């Protein structure tokens, strides 16, 4: 029985793990070695669990992060905690996901939050992904329309720059006129001085 269990364990191991476990004489020793390698001792496990919990609590979906990337990142945290014996209910997971969304997702949060206890986590992610696709489409349509707005803005900006250039021309003309009048008054003063002499 022991030899059969050892054989099953050995067959499931990769080359590196097998190199460590092949010298174990009992299936229990193989199991203990694998457990220590992957989970560590009690102290290590508690540290890893604390770090995993902290990562879970601080999980937030970035404003420009895709739903698929957020889903992948969230699953990595949950799987890591699951290996350490930490389990969450579906309702807890769903609530955590929704409350981690940026404020732009307010309508989805309001719509899906009451369904956290009844819907699967996969359904929540699927709903968010559908909403993301809709948001992307709306942004693309806005950008297609945007050049018209941009052209109108440019036209109004050009008009204002023309007005400012006209006012600059007028001010330069005024300056030239004042310079001419100043020079003529200077000439008149010189003539008066000459006559007096």
TrEMBL record:
Basic and acidic residues bias (residue ranges): 147-159
Pfam families in the record: Retrotran_gag_2
Biased composition (Acidic residues): 160-191
Region Disordered, residue ranges: 147-197
Taxonomy, superkingdom: Eukaryota
Protein name (record): UBN2 domain-containing protein
Species lineage: Eukaryota, Viridiplantae, Streptophyta, Embryophyta, Tracheophyta
